[in-house]
């Protein structure tokens, strides 16, 4: 006679639906019952995409505060959301699926397929470096867990029952994903992935811009300009002369006969310092733009106030700022700053470079005016 106690019929009836649901979940998580045989999803571009951004995971306290309970349970506690009752199981819009925690790009809509499991399924991740696979022996079976690398979010599992060409099925929780439509990729910082959808990647933003400015003796000008936040490099030299007067020397320029101006070449980061800001907040404050061919004790056309532009955009900005400064009433006389195209640049002799760094307390007539 068996010593096991019999389960009452009423208890069995109550447990039966729960058991069926559990079997359904486990079977769906281990077998792609509805995967179309021989189906080959559209694949993303094979050329590796260089996404140089850093993706970080917020603190657990921050995640508890900001994530919905289901999302926190799935991503941080290895939970599983219900099949067929989640955001992306039947989602067909074109775009990227990124980690809801860190934002790192994980999967493409072009690698998504109908598995019939009730969860989003993909044949491959966007980039292997953003996905980590781990052995999972929970629930009485051995599976391969998938996690995001930087966010360390639990995503789901990967199985070897997917369609060609990979034969893999990444069974992923919608709660672990955030979707970025293809038309919003560039605006949200994922423009590098646009070629994977047959679109041109946005042109990278310029990280440097160059300006050529003159305002008297270049020693004092350079000393102030090199200290401005956003300025990367400065060099003193000569520009603004006739095209046939190439490579002048200081001894030639100082006579005023060559037509060149003592100038400073400024290389700056336009994301930190705009050309407009460089002119209005700094250039027009560090010298007197109303004295013609003179700054302090330095007299001659080589000491003129001038902006030598490198593009139509710089020319327009220079004209706008000059007009604004002229109308501001800060100067008792009209602004006479020359605005002209930049000519050939000739670096000044070595002893002129960083002169006031090498000679603290040396001559200058430049200072910032309020």
TrEMBL record:
Residues 1-34 form the signal peptide. This is Multifunctional fusion protein. Residues 32-60 are annotated as: Disordered. Keywords: Multifunctional enzyme, Oxidoreductase, Signal. It comes from Corallococcus sicarius. Has an important function as a repair enzyme for proteins that have been inactivated by oxidation. Catalyzes the reversible oxidation-reduction of methionine sulfoxide in proteins to methionine. Residues 50-60 have a biased composition (Basic and acidic residues). The gene is msrA. Its EC number is 1.8.4.11, 1.8.4.12. The lineage of its organism: Bacteria, Pseudomonadati, Myxococcota, Myxococcia, Myxococcales. The active site is at 171 (nucleophile), 217. Belongs to the MsrA Met sulfoxide reductase family. The keyword Coiled coil does not apply. SUPFAM superfamilies: Mss4-like, Peptide methionine sulfoxide reductase.
């Amino acid at each position: 006679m068996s010593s096991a106690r019999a389960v009452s019929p009423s208890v069995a009836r109550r447990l039966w639906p729960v058991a069926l649901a559990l079997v359904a979940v486990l079977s769906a998580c281990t077998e792609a019952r509805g995967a179309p045989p021989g189906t080959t999803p559209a694949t993303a571009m094979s050329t590796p995409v260089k996404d140089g951004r850093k993706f970080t995971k917020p603190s657990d306290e921050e995640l508890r505060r900001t994530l919905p309970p289901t999302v926190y349970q799935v991503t941080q506690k290895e939970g599983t959301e219900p099949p067929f009752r989640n955001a992306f199981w039947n989602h067909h819009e074109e775009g990227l699926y990124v980690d809801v925690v860190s934002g790192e790009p994980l999967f493409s809509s072009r690698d998504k397929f109908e598995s019939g499991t009730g969860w989003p399924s993909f044949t491959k991740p966007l980039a292997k470096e953003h996905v980590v696979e781990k052995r999972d022996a929970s629930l009485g079976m051995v599976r391969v867990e998938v996690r995001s690398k930087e966010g360390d979010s639990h995503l789901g599992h990967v199985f070897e029952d997917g369609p060609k060409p990979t034969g893999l099925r990444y069974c992923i929780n919608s709660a672990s994903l955030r979707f970025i439509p293809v038309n919003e990729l560039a605006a949200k910082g994922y423009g590098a992935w646009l070629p994977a959808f047959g679109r041109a990647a946005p042109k990278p933003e310029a990280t440097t811009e160059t300006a050529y400015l003159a305002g008297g003796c270049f020693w004092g000008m350079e000393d102030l300009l090199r200290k401005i936040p956003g300025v990367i490099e400065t060099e003193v030299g000569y520009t603004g002369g006739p095209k046939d007067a190439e490579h002048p020397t200081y001894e030639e320029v100082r006579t005023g006969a060559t037509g060149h101006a003592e100038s400073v070449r400024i290389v700056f980061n336009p994301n930190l310092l705009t050309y407009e800001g460089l002119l209005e907040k700094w250039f027009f404050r560090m010298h007197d733009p109303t004295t013609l061919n003179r700054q302090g004790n330095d007299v001659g056309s080589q000491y003129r106030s001038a902006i030598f532009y490198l593009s139509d955009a710089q020319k327009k900005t220079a004209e706008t700022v000059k007009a604004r400064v002229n109308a501001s009433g800060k100067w008792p006389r009209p602004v006479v700053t020359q605005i002209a195209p930049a000519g050939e640049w000739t670096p000044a002799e070595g002893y002129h470079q960083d002169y006031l760094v090498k000679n603290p307390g040396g001559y200058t007539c430049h200072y910032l005016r309020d």
